[in-house]
Specification:
- By secondary structure, the protein is an alpha/beta fold.
- It has two domains: about 5-50 and about 300-395, Aspartate Aminotransferase, domain 1; about 70-300, Type I PLP-dependent aspartate aminotransferase-like (Major domain) (Aspartate Aminotransferase, domain 2, 3-Layer(aba) Sandwich).
- The chain has helices at about 15-30, 50-60, 80-90, 110-115, 135-140, 185-200, 270-280, 285-295, 300-325, 345-360, 385-395, and strands spanning about 35-40, 100-105, 125-130, 145-150, 170-175, 200-205, 230-235, 250-255, 260, 265-270, 330, 340, 360, 365, 375-380.
- Strands 2-8-7-6-5-3-4 form a seven-stranded mixed sheet, with helices on both faces. It has a four-stranded antiparallel sheet with strand order 11-12-15-14.
- Strand 5, helix 6 (about 185-200) and strand 6 (about 200-205) form a beta-alpha-beta unit.
- Helix 3 (about 80-90) packs parallel to helix 8 and helix 9 runs parallel beside helix 11 (about 385-395).
- The longest helix is centred in the C-terminal third of the chain and has 27 residues, at about 300-325.
- The protein is globular and about 60 Å long.
- The protein starts with 15 loop residues before the first helix and ends with a helix.
- The relative contact order is 0.17.
- The mean pLDDT is about 95.
Length: about 400
């Protein structure tokens, strides 16, 4: 008899953003003339920058002839991209990361979900609450039930603090944070690194939004912390950095010498394991995509992508000021594309109210965990005209 993976019955029947899409579609069907402004899912709206477009056009031309044609590439990513990543994202910041410690993929979400395959079913997980659903759901799908929730509240600035009592093997951290938009200081991250090294634990650090950081001194990478190479894996994404939500590209850093342990207590290096996983289950991001990602690191690409991010941050500033003028408490915005708004009530009810009365889509905080109840997340990804119109609609309520 064919049996299903019964762990799927232990997660919510629909993914958060699938439920949002269902409600929005029902509203559109009932109100076909409504102009809906989407400030919910963190999908970019601005076009790819000219440097990326030019590089991808050239890559398409390469595929049109025998001389420069590329079929299967290295599963770990082409050297031309990995070397640029190592230099610009890390070495130029004084961080020791080598190109062969970087594995290119089709996005940070996939890597965050797939990395748990390297670890035993009995490992204990800790995640922030509220939290990006992928961290929790993928572990439950794999059969793990021992998941500790670390409170992220106004009182601690939405950055949990490690304690001697915390019993966990793997801790997920995401800063700038999704969904709260909060950032962590170097001292706060160093506390986690020190805790992880002392407890032979691992930090899975999601840095998908690091390019939005504008405050001096806020770390862009976990590897800015002393001794982080011995206890942390970092995930990066071009989705928000360069508008690749529809192109799909990201990468994961697994330092040489980073280990977990077998049942006998012997150290096992994780980089070869992740390489083995990727070479078995993944054929690599496309050549065209990786040439586009490489262009992000050109002087033109750096300037153009920064300008687009600044545009989104200005959207966030405008919305944050408008919401605060209405009396709402708002976190995020300055170093993040997300606003975390205290609505002091049922978050799905507030979501439905904005959708039905203002035709504005947000994300209910309850979708990110129990601690998210009473909040909504607003994304700054949209056109300036739509953002200004959404502000006026919300004010009118």
């Amino acid at each position: 008899m064919l049996h299903v993976n019964e762990n799927y019955a232990k997660i919510k029947p629909t993914y958060l953003f699938a439920e949002i899409a269902h409600r929005v579609e029902a509203h559109k069907k009932a109100n076909p003339d409504a102009k809906i402004i989407r400030l919910g899912i963190g999908d970019v709206t601005e076009p790819l920058c000219p440097a990326i477009i030019e590089a991808m056009h050239k890559a398409v031309d390469d595929e049109a002839g025998r001389t420069n044609f590329h079929g299967y590439g290295p599963e770990q990513g082409y050297a031309f991209l990995r070397e640029k990543i190592a230099k610009v994202d890390f070495q130029d910041r004084g961080i020791r990361i080598d190109a062969n410690e970087i594995l290119v993929s089709d996005g940070a979400k996939c890597d965050c979900g797939n990395i748990q395959e390297l670890f035993g079913e009995d490992v204990k997980i800790a995640v922030g609450d509220p939290v990006y659903p992928v961290y929790v759901d993928t572990n439950i799908m794999a059969g793990r039930q021992d998941i500790a929730l670390l409170p992220c509240t106004k009182e601690n600035g939405y950055v949990p603090v490690p304690t001697p009592e915390l019993d966990a093997d793997i801790v997920y951290l995401c800063y700038p944070n999704n969904p709260t938009g909060a950032v962590a200081t170097l001292e706060q991250l160093q506390a986690w690194v020190d805790w992880a090294n002392a407890n032979k634990a691992l930090i899975l650090f999601d840095a998908a939004y690091e390019a939005f950081i504008r405050t001096p001194g806020i770390p862009h990478s976990i590897y800015e912390c002393k001794n982080a190479r011995t206890c942390a894996i970092e995930f990066r994404s071009y989705s928000k950095t360069a508008g690749f939500t529809g192109i799909r590209c990201g990468y994961t850093v697994v330092p040489k010498g980073l280990v977990a342990y077998d049942q006998a207590g012997n150290p096992v290096e994780l980089r070869p394991m992740w390489t083995r996983r990727q070479t078995t289950k993944f054929n690599g991001a496309s050549y065209i995509t990786q040439r586009g990602a490489e262009a992000v690191y050109s002087p033109e690409g750096q300037a153009q992508t920064k300008a687009t991010i600044d545009f989104y941050l200005e959207n966030g500033r405008l919305m944050k000021e408008a919401l605060q003028s209405l009396g709402y408490q708002v976190t995020g915005g300055g170093d993040s594309p997300y606003l975390w708004v205290d609505v002091k009530g049922d978050s799905w009810e507030f979501f439905d109210m904005l959708l039905k009365k203002a035709n504005v889509v947000t994300t209910p905080g309850a979708g990110f965990g129990k601690a998210g109840e009473g909040y909504i997340r607003i994304s700054s990804f949209n056109s300036r005209a739509n953002v200004l119109e959404a502000i006026e609609r919300i004010k009118a309520l």
